[in-house]
Each structure stands twice: as structure tokens, then as C-alpha cells.
Design brief:
Blueprint (H helix, E strand, L loop, with lengths): L2 H25 L13 H6 L4 H6 L9 H12 L5 H24 L4 H13 L1 H8 L4 H21 L2 H17 L9
Helix pairs in contact: 1-5, 1-6, 1-7, 5-6, 5-7, 5-8, 8-9
Length: 185
């Protein structure tokens, strides 16, 4: 077994442990959490609107995520709303960040640094909060950081797949939270 294969074997179990740690912290006391404050913007926005209106209109005052609005509209007309099911997409985005971002970072930095990054992602209080809050912030983290890492990989390798990934990740980050565009000037 080569040194590279040995490192790869050690990296994946360590990443899995950080993923489990991050998942436990994100789900700790989760069933007792209720929707608060800005988490209601999306539900209030979709009531009485068509899917076309939800996808194409943006409310700059009580802004919410266009994809989450469409998701909430689908829930409203099918299975209904519950705290868990409303937060499901942001939980999944937060969990995906624990896997995708360290795997991308591993292509840029040494594996040890990528594992430290994975550990910091797992225990970050802000990222844990974003994964539990029914707003698009965990999508912005996943899409935004992925876009930055993919841009670097594209610029250093010239591979087209990284360029495509950069475009998709950047579009996800922007489309998920168009209110963030207000800060770009």
C-alpha cells in the first residue's frame, strides 16, 4: 500500500468522525426548537401566490430565499408545514457543507489542513446556527465557499469541470439569498 493510499484511508474516517460530530451538534435539542422571527418570512410570502410569482418575485423588505419560498409553497399545497420539514433543506445544506467543503479544500491544501478545516466547520457556532435556522444562510455558505474553492481550482488547473462547478455554486449562493446582493457594491 502506497503512502498516498494510506493517507486517503486515514482522511476518510477522520472526515466521517467530523461529519458525525457536526451532525450531532446540529441536531442537538432540535425537536424543541420553534420557528422564530425571520423564519416566518417565507411562509407569509407564499400564501396566496402562484409558483411563477414565488420564483420570479423578490420582496426586498421581508426578503427570503426564492428556492426556499418555492419549497414552502410546495409544502403548503401538499404535506403541510412543520418546524422540521420547513428546516429540512437548510439542515441538508449544512450537512453537505461538512463533506463537500473539506473534500474541495483537500485538493488545494494538505490533508491535515483540510481535516482541521473539517473540524472547524463541524464545531463552528455560526454554521451550526445557520444549519438550524429556516433561512438561506447555509446555502450561501455551501454555495459561496464552494464557488471560492472551485474558482481557485479552475484558475490553477484550467479544468473546465471546475469552471462549471464555480458557475453552478455561485449561482446557487446568489439565487438562494438575493438579499446578499445588496451588500455587493
Amino acid at each position: 500500500m502506497t503512502k498516498n493510499n494510506t493517507a486517503r484511508i486515514r482522511f476518510l474516517p477522520a472526515l466521517a468522525l467530523f461529519f458525525i460530530l457536526g451532525a450531532v451538534l446540529r441536531f442537538y435539542l432540535f425537536p424543541s426548537q420553534i420557528l422564530l422571527d425571520d423564519e416566518w418570512h417565507s411562509q407569509m410570502w407564499v400564501i396566496g401566490r402562484s409558483p411563477f410569482e414565488v420564483l420570479t418575485q423578490f420582496n426586498p423588505v421581508d426578503n427570503s430565499s426564492l428556492p426556499l419560498n418555492l419549497y414552502d409553497l410546495a409544502l403548503y399545497h401538499t404535506v403541510g408545514w412543520s418546524e422540521f420539514i420547513i428546516r429540512l433543506p437548510v439542515i441538508l445544506a449544512g450537512l453537505l457543507s461538512l463533506l463537500i467543503l473539506p473534500l474541495l479544500a483537500r485538493r488545494i491544501v494538505p490533508e491535515r489542513a483540510a481535516l482541521i478545516f473539517a473540524g472547524l466547520l463541524a464545531i463552528s457556532p455560526v454554521l451550526i446556527f445557520y444549519s438550524r435556522f429556516a433561512r438561506a444562510y447555509s446555502f450561501v455558505v455551501l454555495g459561496g465557499y464552494s464557488a471560492v474553492l472551485l474558482l481557485y481550482l479552475w484558475q490553477t488547473t484550467g479544468r473546465r469541470r471546475y469552471a462549471v462547478g464555480y458557475i453552478i455554486a455561485g449561482a446557487v449562493a446568489v439565487y438562494a439569498h438575493m438579499g446578499a446582493l445588496e451588500h455587493i457594491k
